[in-house]
Backbone:
Protein backbone atom coordinates (compact mmCIF):
# COMPACT_ATOMS: atom_id res chain seq x y z
CA UNK A 1 0.00 0.00 0.00
CA UNK A 2 2.83 2.43 0.84
CA UNK A 3 4.37 1.99 -2.62
CA UNK A 4 1.04 2.76 -4.32
CA UNK A 5 0.67 5.91 -2.23
CA UNK A 6 4.21 6.97 -3.14
CA UNK A 7 3.58 6.50 -6.89
CA UNK A 8 0.15 8.13 -6.95
CA UNK A 9 -0.16 11.85 -7.34
CA UNK A 10 -2.88 13.20 -5.04
CA UNK A 11 -4.01 15.84 -7.56
CA UNK A 12 -4.32 13.35 -10.45
CA UNK A 13 -7.61 11.63 -11.29
CA UNK A 14 -7.58 8.68 -13.62
CA UNK A 15 -10.31 8.30 -16.20
CA UNK A 16 -9.87 4.61 -16.88
CA UNK A 17 -7.40 1.78 -17.06
CA UNK A 18 -4.01 2.24 -18.70
CA UNK A 19 -3.09 0.71 -22.05
CA UNK A 20 -0.85 -2.26 -21.30
CA UNK A 21 2.43 -2.73 -23.18
CA UNK A 22 1.95 -6.37 -24.19
CA UNK A 23 0.88 -9.81 -23.05
CA UNK A 24 3.52 -11.36 -20.75
CA UNK A 25 2.68 -15.03 -20.15
CA UNK A 26 0.18 -17.60 -19.02
CA UNK A 27 1.07 -20.09 -16.29
CA UNK A 28 -0.50 -23.53 -16.05
CA UNK A 29 -0.43 -26.25 -13.41
CA UNK A 30 1.79 -29.20 -14.24
CA UNK A 31 1.69 -32.64 -12.61
CA UNK A 32 5.08 -33.76 -14.00
CA UNK A 33 7.54 -31.07 -15.10
CA UNK A 34 9.67 -33.37 -17.29
CA UNK A 35 6.56 -34.62 -19.08
CA UNK A 36 5.32 -31.03 -19.45
CA UNK A 37 8.60 -29.88 -20.99
CA UNK A 38 8.56 -32.83 -23.38
CA UNK A 39 5.01 -31.90 -24.45
CA UNK A 40 5.46 -28.15 -24.92
CA UNK A 41 8.87 -28.48 -26.62
CA UNK A 42 8.60 -31.80 -28.48
CA UNK A 43 4.90 -31.86 -29.36
CA UNK A 44 4.01 -28.16 -29.56
CA UNK A 45 7.36 -27.04 -31.05
CA UNK A 46 8.15 -24.57 -28.27
CA UNK A 47 11.50 -23.26 -27.09
CA UNK A 48 12.50 -23.77 -23.44
CA UNK A 49 13.40 -20.38 -21.92
CA UNK A 50 13.40 -20.97 -18.14
CA UNK A 51 14.10 -24.31 -16.47
CA UNK A 52 14.04 -24.70 -12.67
CA UNK A 53 13.11 -27.70 -10.49
CA UNK A 54 9.54 -26.37 -9.95
CA UNK A 55 8.85 -24.09 -12.95
CA UNK A 56 9.60 -23.88 -16.67
CA UNK A 57 8.77 -21.24 -19.26
CA UNK A 58 8.40 -22.27 -22.87
CA UNK A 59 7.82 -19.94 -25.82
CA UNK A 60 5.18 -21.34 -28.18
CA UNK A 61 4.22 -19.18 -31.16
CA UNK A 62 5.46 -16.02 -29.44
CA UNK A 63 3.51 -16.78 -26.26
CA UNK A 64 5.26 -17.53 -22.99
CA UNK A 65 3.68 -20.56 -21.34
CA UNK A 66 4.80 -21.23 -17.81
CA UNK A 67 4.30 -24.63 -16.22
CA UNK A 68 4.78 -25.20 -12.52
CA UNK A 69 4.26 -27.98 -10.03
CA UNK A 70 3.94 -26.12 -6.72
CA UNK A 71 0.78 -24.47 -5.38
CA UNK A 72 -1.35 -25.79 -8.24
CA UNK A 73 -4.99 -26.51 -8.81
CA UNK A 74 -6.10 -28.59 -11.76
CA UNK A 75 -9.00 -28.41 -14.20
CA UNK A 76 -11.78 -30.85 -13.38
CA UNK A 77 -12.74 -33.46 -15.98
CA UNK A 78 -15.32 -32.22 -18.45
CA UNK A 79 -14.25 -28.57 -18.08
CA UNK A 80 -13.56 -26.49 -21.17
CA UNK A 81 -12.54 -23.41 -19.21
CA UNK A 82 -9.89 -22.29 -18.68
CA UNK A 83 -8.11 -23.10 -21.91
CA UNK A 84 -5.46 -21.55 -24.13
CA UNK A 85 -6.00 -21.12 -27.87
CA UNK A 86 -3.89 -20.62 -30.97
CA UNK A 87 -4.93 -19.38 -34.41
CA UNK A 88 -3.81 -21.75 -37.16
CA UNK A 89 -4.31 -22.07 -40.90
CA UNK A 90 -6.28 -24.85 -42.59
CA UNK A 91 -3.20 -26.95 -43.42
CA UNK A 92 -1.77 -26.50 -39.93
CA UNK A 93 -4.90 -27.65 -38.09
CA UNK A 94 -4.99 -30.85 -40.18
CA UNK A 95 -1.22 -31.36 -39.76
CA UNK A 96 -1.45 -30.86 -35.98
CA UNK A 97 -4.30 -33.37 -35.70
CA UNK A 98 -2.16 -35.92 -37.56
CA UNK A 99 0.94 -35.05 -35.50
CA UNK A 100 -0.93 -35.44 -32.22
CA UNK A 101 -2.21 -38.85 -33.39
CA UNK A 102 1.39 -39.91 -34.08
CA UNK A 103 2.29 -38.74 -30.57
CA UNK A 104 -0.56 -40.83 -29.11
CA UNK A 105 -2.43 -37.73 -27.89
CA UNK A 106 -6.22 -37.80 -28.32
CA UNK A 107 -7.94 -34.86 -30.00
CA UNK A 108 -11.51 -33.82 -30.45
CA UNK A 109 -13.15 -34.03 -33.81
CA UNK A 110 -13.14 -30.83 -35.85
CA UNK A 111 -16.19 -28.72 -35.07
CA UNK A 112 -17.58 -25.37 -36.12
CA UNK A 113 -19.85 -22.59 -34.92
CA UNK A 114 -21.12 -21.26 -38.24
CA UNK A 115 -19.97 -23.79 -40.84
CA UNK A 116 -16.95 -21.72 -41.91
CA UNK A 117 -14.34 -21.98 -39.16
CA UNK A 118 -12.81 -25.16 -37.74
CA UNK A 119 -11.94 -25.74 -34.08
CA UNK A 120 -10.23 -28.61 -32.31
CA UNK A 121 -9.43 -29.37 -28.67
CA UNK A 122 -6.72 -31.45 -27.03
CA UNK A 123 -5.05 -31.46 -23.62
CA UNK A 124 -1.51 -31.27 -22.33
CA UNK A 125 -0.38 -34.17 -20.08
CA UNK A 126 -1.65 -32.34 -16.97
CA UNK A 127 -5.16 -31.97 -18.42
CA UNK A 128 -4.93 -28.29 -19.42
CA UNK A 129 -7.15 -27.67 -22.45
CA UNK A 130 -5.69 -26.32 -25.69
CA UNK A 131 -7.81 -25.09 -28.61
CA UNK A 132 -6.78 -24.64 -32.21
CA UNK A 133 -8.92 -22.14 -34.14
CA UNK A 134 -8.87 -21.89 -37.92
CA UNK A 135 -10.96 -19.01 -39.23
CA UNK A 136 -11.69 -20.68 -42.57
CA UNK A 137 -10.50 -22.78 -45.47
CA UNK A 138 -10.81 -26.30 -44.01
CA UNK A 139 -12.64 -28.45 -46.58
CA UNK A 140 -15.96 -29.75 -45.30
CA UNK A 141 -16.23 -27.27 -42.41
CA UNK A 142 -19.88 -26.74 -43.28
CA UNK A 143 -20.48 -30.41 -42.41
CA UNK A 144 -18.64 -30.39 -39.05
CA UNK A 145 -20.73 -30.73 -35.86
CA UNK A 146 -21.96 -27.33 -34.75
CA UNK A 147 -21.31 -25.93 -31.31
CA UNK A 148 -22.79 -22.85 -29.65
CA UNK A 149 -21.30 -19.38 -30.20
CA UNK A 150 -19.38 -19.68 -26.94
CA UNK A 151 -18.03 -23.06 -25.93
CA UNK A 152 -18.11 -26.52 -27.44
CA UNK A 153 -21.58 -27.52 -26.28
CA UNK A 154 -22.31 -31.03 -27.50
CA UNK A 155 -20.11 -30.78 -30.62
CA UNK A 156 -17.28 -32.71 -28.93
CA UNK A 157 -16.81 -35.01 -25.95
CA UNK A 158 -13.99 -33.28 -24.07
CA UNK A 159 -13.91 -35.91 -21.34
CA UNK A 160 -12.29 -38.33 -23.81
CA UNK A 161 -9.22 -36.10 -24.19
CA UNK A 162 -7.32 -37.21 -21.05
CA UNK A 163 -4.34 -39.53 -21.46
CA UNK A 164 -1.57 -41.00 -19.33
CA UNK A 165 1.35 -41.33 -21.75
CA UNK A 166 2.48 -39.97 -25.09
CA UNK A 167 5.57 -40.15 -27.29
CA UNK A 168 7.45 -37.74 -29.53
CA UNK A 169 8.28 -39.66 -32.75
CA UNK A 170 11.92 -39.55 -33.83
Residues:
Amino acid sequence: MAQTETLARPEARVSGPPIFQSFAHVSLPCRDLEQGKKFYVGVMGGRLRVNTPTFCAINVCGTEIGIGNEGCTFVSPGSEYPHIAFYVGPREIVQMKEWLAQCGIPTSNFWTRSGVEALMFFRDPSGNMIELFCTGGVPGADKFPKGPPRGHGTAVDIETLYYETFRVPE
Observations:
- The mean pLDDT is 91.
- Helices lie at 2-7, 33-43, 90-102.
- The domain at 74-163 is CATH 3.10.180 (2,3-Dihydroxybiphenyl 1,2-Dioxygenase; domain 1).
